[in-house]
Design a protein that fits this description.
CATH topology of the largest domain: Transferase(Phosphotransferase), domain 1
Membrane topology: Lipid-anchor
Protein name: non-specific serine/threonine protein kinase
Number of helices: 20
Largest sheet: 6 strands, mixed
Radius of gyration: 29 Å
Shape: elongated
GO molecular function, one term: ATP binding
CATH architecture of the largest domain: Orthogonal Bundle
Oligomer: single chain
Main location: membrane
CATH class of the largest domain: Mainly Alpha
Distance between the termini: 19 Å
CATH superfamily of the largest domain: Transferase(Phosphotransferase) domain 1
Catalytic activity: L-threonyl-[protein] + ATP = O-phospho-L-threonyl-[protein] + ADP + H(+); L-seryl-[protein] + ATP = O-phospho-L-seryl-[protein] + ADP + H(+)
Number of domains: 3
Number of strands: 11
Strand content: 5-15%
Strand order of the largest sheet: 2-8-9-5-4-3
Helix content: 40-55%
Length: 503
């Protein structure tokens, strides 16, 4: 087992760690936008990257959702969601939303894959983007980005702490219009059953439009909820969704945002015609809104809800009308919603951890020290094959330096241990992954996480399948606040230990 060149380690920086085997990213899961990208500025796609559209196995999605546990359901079955939606977490720690159709929903697997692939090519910051599908036997599932901050319906109709302020309602209206306009320009003019349950809030509190409504009708799904009061008149006549039907549904959402209630369009239009606009407004706003802005939105809603489809405005007009009505463009959405900004917490490892793994997960340096002292050099066997000629005085001096380092390490004199282990390493006649791991811990205990990471990586170069090398990298990465990479490394180490046990 040869060692990497030391120059590689000296030139490696944390931001370049994806080149290291233990930190490699799965290109089938995480990539730049992919497909027809139109990210634009502001509000960005989660973490600046959106996964490419991929096929997932049923086994992977079953594991991600804990065997489709009822505890993971985020959208209940019923007229608003005829098929269940679960949240789940993939092995790479990414949260996902999984829509599971009944077995008869898409009898033709080819049609399902074509539909999903078409929607999967869309990429926009205003969409909860579709990132994959599963078509396995009778199973039909869609996988989308997970939005952790509930639906517009929850924030408007079922709020507990505070209602949505006026400026945020205007932002929601604009973002929905932008999402639909983007989809329309990409050839997806139809959106099925647009309502407040289809608008989701991401980790930054930004509203996103669910990609699930972009799929065509399935056999057991309905284009619109069974409540006929909110259904476009033309759909009642011919049972077809048209681009003008989508505009009508936009009008119902504008009514929701104005009133804070789900008011039947006919009733709302009667109020508008009677110029009872203030009666239409949500009383929970307590008058904290611009009458001029509200008048514009009421007028726009009225246009969208016209009985004749040709009299309704197009999506471009919606965007152009709503764009100037944004009073707080600099305020983050999560602030206006009154929610904490979501930070990605380190994932719970997918595999059970050994005592070393648990100590690294806790970042318990004292426990790690005790384990390394106890394990001594048993994992170094086979990493060196020395010729008789190499057993020279220099060799004896090198081993003496390591011995002094071991005494210092045992006695927690970490500065001396670093010096002695460095003497051993610099000679270069013999390589020892354990020495690198020990010196890595010494660097951690001396508040030098960069140096610790380099040593842990070097230990991996010497012994590519050594769990301890990965565990030490995990701790160093966590110290460098690279929590996602640290969690990935922890899982990698646990996987290597699992393979060891099987052998």
């Amino acid at each position: 087992m040869g060692c990497c060149q030391s120059s590689f380690l000296r030139e490696t920086h944390p931001e370049k760690l994806q080149k290291n085997r233990g930190l490699s990213l799965n290109p089938s899961i995480i990539n730049t936008t992919g497909g027809d990208s139109d990210q634009g500025g502001g509000g960005g796609v989660v973490g600046g990257v959106t996964p490419v559209f991929s096929e997932y196995s049923f086994t992977d999605l079953k594991a991600a959702t804990n065997n489709f546990s009822s505890d993971y359901i985020v959208s209940e079955s019923g007229e608003k969601a005829p098929n269940l939606v679960y949240k789940g977490r993939l092995q790479n720690r990414r949260w996902i939303a999984v829509k599971k159709f009944t077995k008869l929903a898409w009898p033709d697997p080819k049609q399902f894959v074509e539909e999903a692939s078409g929607v999967g090519r869309l990429r926009h910051r205003r969409l909860a983007n579709l990132i994959g599908y599963c078509c396995d036997g009778d199973e039909r599932l869609l996988v989308a980005e997970y939005m952790p901050n509930d639906t517009l319906a929850k924030h408007l109709f079922h709020w507990e702490s505070q209602t949505i302020e006026w400026a945020m309602r205007l932002r929601v209206a604009l973002y929905i219009a932008e999402a639909l306009e983007y989809c329309s320009t990409k050839g997806h003019k139809l959106y099925h059953d647009l309502n407040a349950y289809r608008v989701l809030f991401d980790e930054d509190g930004d509203p996103r439009l669910s990609c699930f409504g972009l799929m065509k009708n399935s056999r057991d799904g309905k284009s619109y909820s069974t409540n006929l009061a909110y259904t476009p008149p033309e759909y009642l006549r011919n049972g077809r969704v048209t681009p003008e039907s989508v505009i009508f549904s936009c009008g119902t959402i504008l009514l929701d945002l104005l009133s804070g209630k789900h008011i039947p369009p006919s009733h709302a239009l009667d109020m508008i015609r009677g110029k009872n606009i203030l009666l239409l407004m949500d009383s929970h706003l307590e008058g904290k809104f611009s009458t001029e802005e509200a008048t514009v939105v009421v007028g726009l809603a009225s246009e969208c809800l016209q009985y004749e489809p040709r009299e309704r405005p197009n999506l471009q007009k919606l965007v152009e009308t709503l764009e100037p009505l944004q009073p707080k463009p600099e305020v983050p959405s999560y602030v206006m919603l009154g929610i904490p900004k979501q930070e990605e917490a380190p994932a719970t490892p997918q595999r059970p951890l050994s005592p070393m793994g648990e100590a690294c997960q806790r970042m318990d340096l004292t426990a790690i020290h005790q384990i390394l002292v106890t394990s001594h050099y048993r994992d170094d066997e086979g990493t060196n094959e020395l010729s008789f000629q190499e057993w020279t005085q220099q060799m004896r001096d090198m081993l003496e330096a390591r011995k002094r380092g071991d005494f210092a390490f045992r006695d927690k004199d970490f500065k001396t241990a670093i010096d002695c282990y460095s003497q051993f390493i610099d000679v270069g006649t013999m390589v020892s992954p354990t020495v690198y791991a020990r010196r890595s811990l010494c660097h951690l205990l001396s508040d030098q996480p960069d140096a610790a990471l380099r040593d842990a990586m070097q230990a991996q170069c010497v012994y590519p399948d050594w769990p301890t090398a990965f565990y030490m990298q995990a701790v160093a990465l966590a110290k460098l606040n690279m929590d996602k990479d640290a969690a990935d490394m922890l899982n990698e180490a646990a996987g290597l230990e699992e393979k060891r046990q099987r052998r």
